[in-house]
Amino acid sequence: MRIRVSGKDIDIGESLQAHVNQALTESTAKYAGRPTDATVTFSRDGFGLACEVFVHLSTGLVAQANGMGADCYAAFEAARERMAKQLRRHKRRLKDHHKERPNPVDTVPAGSFVLAPFDEDVEDDEDHHDESVNGDAGPTIIAETELRVPSLSVAEAVLQMDLQHAPVLVFRNEKGGAINVVYRREDGNIGWIDPRVESGGSSAQG
Question: For burial by CB atoms within 10 Å, which of 7, 69, 88, 156 has the most?
Fold first, then answer.
């Protein structure tokens, strides 16, 4: 597995890189859909340090975990333990996914935007030239990145959302190709939005 270790305004020494490579390889090697590469990023968070880990599986799914600690080693161990817990929890589903999907997950590019909230207290300013949505008066785009939208079944999308510990996941439904959304509901169930369904109410999986 290829592992990239980096730090945001933090020096990453060889001993830390060696520890991360060995520990992460050992904790992820036993799971189906074996990891192909991973990124580990350290950054400062208040008086401590944060560690973010992304592990890309051979089937195309991605597991993500975060940890915090007094130093880089403690932050990494916290993230690694959470990663291992997520993979253990879904070990059987990952094995089934690996058997049922001979080829990796396809992805398509999409734009991801961060919008500033409305501020009704700020008066219009003729010199304000920030880009807004569709060029109309509305939320201002303050950041833009590109993401990859995976082509998945609904069951795979729920698994991917859990592996990334995310509140919502946008994906292309392999059955028909429409853009779908799964998300965590307040009642603990999983919501599923499928624009192709014209009647019959909403669908959900939990």
Answer: 156
Give the three-class secondary structure for 146. strand
Task: Please give the Cα distance from 111 to 132 (Å, whole number).
Answer: 15
**Is beta strand 107-115 parallel, antiparallel or unpaired with respect to 141-152?**
antiparallel
Tell me 23's DSSP state.
Answer: H
Report which of 19, 125, 2 is spatially closest to residue 72, judged by C-alpha positions. Answer: 19
Look-up of token digits 């049922």:
100
pLDDT 10s digits, 142-181 = 888 887 888 999 999 999 999 988 899 999 999 888 999 9
pTM above 0.85, yes or no: no
Nearest-angstrom CA–CA distance, 42 and 44? 7
- Token pair belonging to 194: 């499928």
| H helix intervals, the chain | 14-28, 72-89, 91-100, 154-163
Exposed/middle/buried for residue 187 (C-beta within 10 Å: 0-12, 13-18, 19+): exposed
